[in-house]
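Re: the request from the purification team.
They wanted to know what the chain is likely to look like in 3D before they choose a buffer screen. I agreed to run a prediction and write the result into the notebook, where they can find it.
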Amino acid sequence: MADFGFAKELRGLTYTLCGTPEYLAPESLNHKGHNKGVDWWALGILIYEMLAGRPPFRGNNTNEIYESIIQHRLKFPRNFNLLAKDLVKRLLENERTERLGCLKGGALDVMEHRWFEKISWRDMQQCQPPIVPTLYHEGDTGNFDEYGEVEDDGPFAPARERDLFQDWESVIPLR
């Protein structure tokens, strides 16, 4: 899964504040500059939301969401998988220099976490993606949908896109 609507090539720190409020890392909100550590934070949010059915940091408005992130009010449902809980806690480490993925081992630290023990990363590299976009030049945005100011059909992807991911287990090889 990817959403590169606000993707940015990064060399060092950036100060751009954009994205879904519930997914913003604390360093983005503190305006002290951030790096790719925000992506590891967002992965933690995504895993939490996929397992719990809601984001970990919530509020009635954007300011309350930001306050919840800054105060790091992180709570887990009782039935949350213990290995996933450990992974999420380490990805949602407030201090980016101590966050999983930002340590010396980088992405390998995340990939070697016990929650992923049944994933064969080598086999994942061999998988053919359901869509391989054609790029005509660096920075080609022709593969992104254009959205006007009209209301969309709701939170569901069109049927043709849902069908691509219907049998997702066959796409993610297990050891």
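For the purification team: The first helix runs from residue 26 to 29.
Please add any questions underneath this entry.
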